[in-house]
Amino acid sequence: MKQxxxxxxxxxxxxxxxxxxxxxxxxxxxxxxxxxxxxxYPSKELLEEDIKSxxxxxxxSNSKVCGVFVFSIGExxxxxxxxxxxxxxxxxxxxxxxxxxxxxxxxIFKTVEEYCSRQIQNIRIDTHEDxxxxxxxxxxxxxIKCGIIYTHDGSPRIAYQKKYTK
Length: 166
Hints:
By secondary structure, the protein is of the alpha+beta class.
């Protein structure tokens, strides 16, 4: 039986649950060979800004928040420069950032991807080189490795893109 999930914009009332989910995600990454991603990240202030900007979303299952992500359509400043490759195209795109779950549900990434691809047919995302789990999910889902981008603090990330066809 398929699990019913609801995606909605986050509110300030979701903040403490979102912080719990990111804490769980950090511990999972550390336990799975990725100790350097998301150290003290994302901050409460960044999550508050995401909520105020309307780009923060939660995933609910049985009325309980089990996942969180950021999705925005438009130019992402960190994607303006890409090294060791190139983007698949220069068409308008949506960007997924900071996707995490509480570990209680399988298929959270697929739920997010399906939701985002209904908004725009061109999706970009990036991940840390040590995040083998996310790299596997992206490649399994048909995302193409495009090159290396750098975050606002100068850290390198593997950049991926997927173009959907109608």
